[in-house]
Amino acid sequence: MEHITRRFPGVVANDDVHLDVKRATFHALIGENGAGKSTLLGILYGRILPDEGRIFIHERDVTKELRSPADAIRLGIGLVSQHHALIPALTVLENILLGVEPTSVGGLLAPSQAINRIQELAVQLGLDPAVLKQRIEQLSLATLQKVEILKALYRNAQILLLDEPTATLAPAEVEALFSLLHRLVENGTTVVFVTHKLREVMAHSEYITVLRRGRNAGDFQTANVQPEQLLAAMLGTSESDIQTRLLSGATVSSVTTAEPTSAANSSLPLLKLEHISVRNDRGALSLQNISLQLFPAEIVGVAGVDGSGQKELAEAITGLRSVECGSIFLDNEEITRQSVAYRRDKGIAYIPEDRHQEGLVLDFSVAENLLLGHEFQTRWGGGYLINYKVLHQLAADIVSRYDVRLGRAEVLTPVRTLSGGNQQKIVIARALESRPRLLIAYQPTRGLDIGATRFVHHALQEAAAKGAAILLFSLDLDEILLLANRIVVLYNGHIVGTLSRSDASVERIGHLMTGSAA
What is the pLDDT of residue 449? Predict the structure, then answer.
């Protein structure tokens, strides 16, 4: 890719960017939120047309041929984006075959041979072949990520573009994915992946391109570069400054230097679950006989492989999912049958797993999204009528403090036009600015760069220090170990262990998560 420039209203997302990728290599594309990484992949996939620049594949200029994703697929390019592009009402199999339906003589569908190949690929990705019959709307984000990869592989992508491929995967799933990707590279596939996890970059890539504020900030060979050099290129600062910001002995992929907040001494729990059972979208019991207490000023991490009941637990507490049996108490008041709005008014805030489907109204402005749930509070400019001057002033202050990167329209910018990381900052800011007593944080740092992740970690710790109770759901065990006072491990819908921070380790949690611990 040569001299790639793409302008949006008020923002130059890519400014004269160059990207050179060798055949059958593992190439990492890194940078802060809003650096232009996803835009560049979108251009290469034909989803976004560049204002300037040229694209070459095997030294052939394909710029004029590459006008749509269909053109990209024909050229052997596949994309797995941060936000899945699947049709919710169709099954996994129907989504994979859509547009490349196998037919027999006379145009009749003949899916049997295709199904066999898809099932083989599913097993390689660690997907249960039974998932192929399920509708997309019934699946978790982690499973949808695998479906997107499966869809690209089935289309014989020779250039595979992955945008934050491990953001929703558990550690064991991450290793399985990279093992598969390395096998693909050995067989001639070229992999270009975007990630904010420098540990993954150093462990798996061969070459690295850094973007900063829409421009090239450096090209490196992984074997000849140190993480501190990459951070300096990403952040536009010196390596010595980076060194001073890291703990002695900490890895560069660590994103905060603070210890878990010490829970306040309180004999009364703020949240209490008594023997609750919850059904999933398919009507099966995904949580059975769950009892849990959460105290003020405490961060409790919830660990478990995807599908162990985390989503159902978070939604049951927030009121988004009904409880089959059992009771939920907030500050000794039973709220089992209370509405979402009632719970929010009582001080429960929620950072959902899927920011697009559950956290934002994409066509609303930044200010309007920050207002959601606070429409009647005068502090936010609400009441009987919205005072937009007050709303915009408060939104501008929040945007500044949370370092959300906007265009010329500032807080009037439609959220749809922001990068994934900046969208996530809006969701987090809205939850934390409500000054919650109880915060349910589900994958709060998904898609965030190192600096933003550090900021969120400190914000969660500060909220806990002020007395908030936080239930943290994360597939990143390092994040849980970094922040939590206690760790609850879910396996197959049951709590199989509760560990103090001092007793926990990645290995011990991993054994509990997979059911291999006694």
Answer: 79
